[in-house]
Amino acid sequence: MQLLSEQELERRKDREELMKIGINPYPAESFPINVTALDIHNNYENRKNDYKNISIAGRLMSRRIMGSASFAEIQDSTGRLQVYVRRDDICEGEDKTLYNTVFKKLLGIGDFIGVKGYIFTTQTGEISLHVTELKVLSKAVKPLPVVKRDEEGNVYDGFTDPELRYRQRYVDLTVNPEVKNVFITRSKIISNMRRYFDDHGWLEVETPILQQVHGGAAARPFQTHHNTLDMPLYLRIANELYLKRLIVGGFDGVYEFGKMFRNEGMDRTHNPEFTSMEIYVAYKDYIWMMEMVEECLEKVTESIHGTTKVKVGEKEIDFAGPYRRLSMYDSIKEYAGVDVSEMNEEGLRKVCAEMGIEVDDSMGKGKLIDEIFGEKVEANLVQPTYITDYPIEMTPLAKKHRSKEGLVERFELFVNGKEIANAYTELNDPIDQRERFEEQLKLAARGDDEAMAMDDDFLRALEYGMPPTSGLGIGIDRLTMLLTNNSTIQEVLFFPQMRPEKKVKIATDEDFMELGIPAGLIPAIRDLNIHTIEQLKEQDINKLFNDVCGRRKKLKLDTSNPTKEEVEAWLQ
């Protein structure tokens, strides 16, 4: 049974009334649209002759009924438009049902309507549509939240609860239309980045999401099962190893925008599924990749904002290159005041203990260094900064540094204290790669559930030969957070992961009877739209007494009225 509010019940009645008078509240035929609200507001003053015969559709968002004429607002995907509805203009002949009954009584805020007519300017100077035809397109049976705005358009009582907004994004986008701009910007980030790659001749590809081996990153995977093949599969944690296979196959540059899945924690910058862009270019190294990233992000930022500078909280971030470069060891020395370059695992554990950093026995040297870096360094990296030259233990897929023993050619790009890009000079020595995987297996045996698995097919691909290659991954969600000035990842995802909604327990007849309600009166209780014990306890005693007596009579129930004292006892 679905719990319905009084408004929902009334809207369902309105739906039935529309059908009774011969109006389908959900017509199948298309409605012609030849203009948008934004187009009208931007161009009407300069092209008035073009707006004499227009057709537009959208949600009804407000109404001011004034006898035989009314003003209303409709909202399409681009904004709002005031409409002027006059009874005699939309009702031909003597039948005024469309205005008197449908428009004034059976339509409500949130319903979709289609209107035709011509644009004019009111005496107060507002561009409006004089309606000559009106059609019901979709009846909403659940009311929209009421968002109040002052005369300057500022919201002071709105749909603002984060959990409700993320869980009901469709409502959020409707009543907080400015939220759309975040997702429009997100789309522009991807399309501009894609255009940059395409202009360089690199190929966009698709690789498997379901994988036999979880590889390409240090992360805990989601596991599933394929029934036909009777085998376990993993949702990909990265697409790196498949993209490298394509480089082996002869492509000089490949990239992919795609969803990754990591069965890990959730917070303001992490979601279990996230969007990443990965690109691999043959005959390049991580130094070349730094210059490419600077140019790409500079162009993307400028194409969206008209400048390379963006506001992030109270800070101003400048994406114009070149970016500062700082090695992993030097960054720890600068911000943590300790040199870890020559330390073994025991020494690193001692440093973590002194700094109050929580670690466990499964962590090897690489993870311990990463914990120190995350705790002491990351927050200081506000302007775009490359952290380079990582310890070999931290990066099983990167090539050994050309001149520094024990390091690999890797960089991560940090902005506003968060990593948004990760890149390597890719390891293409199959023997070295196998040894790195074997080291990962040892970490897994110690209990590291983020250690990489052995991927024999990937190793076989490397054995056929992979040219020198540089690879890069960029977190699209975090980049969008920066370029839209949002501090939580949930704000830039249409539908972030949420805990299941708590289900309302519908009371059984026995539940009501335990409170002393006679079985014969339970139909009256339910007819009052009271279906839970919580709803019953919220009732006013006098009102409930009068309503139950009235419903008993209306429903012709074969039982006597309760006394007011009995009703009061139900609510104790």
Automatic annotation (TrEMBL):
Q: So what EC number does this one have?
A: 6.1.1.6
Gene Ontology CC entries for this record: cytosol
Q: Where does Mg(2+) 1 bind?
A: E412, E419
Please tell me where this protein is predominantly located.
cytoplasm
Needed cofactors: Mg(2+)
Location in the cell: Cytoplasm
User: Can the keyword Cytoplasm be found in this entry's annotation?
Assistant: yes
Domain Aminoacyl-transfer RNA synthetases class-II family profile span(s) in chain numbering:
186-500
Q: Which GO terms describe its biological process?
A: lysyl-tRNA aminoacylation
Q: Which CDD domains match?
A: LysRS_core, LysRS_N
Family affiliation = Belongs to the class-II aminoacyl-tRNA synthetase family.
Subunit description: Homodimer.
Tell me the HAMAP family matching this sequence. Lys_tRNA_synth_class2 (MF_00252)
PANTHER family, per database record: LYSINE--TRNA LIGASE, CHLOROPLASTIC_MITOCHONDRIAL, LYSYL-TRNA SYNTHETASE
State the name under which the record lists this protein.
Lysine--tRNA ligase
Supply the source organism for this entry: Indibacter alkaliphilus (strain CCUG 57479 / KCTC 22604 / LW1)
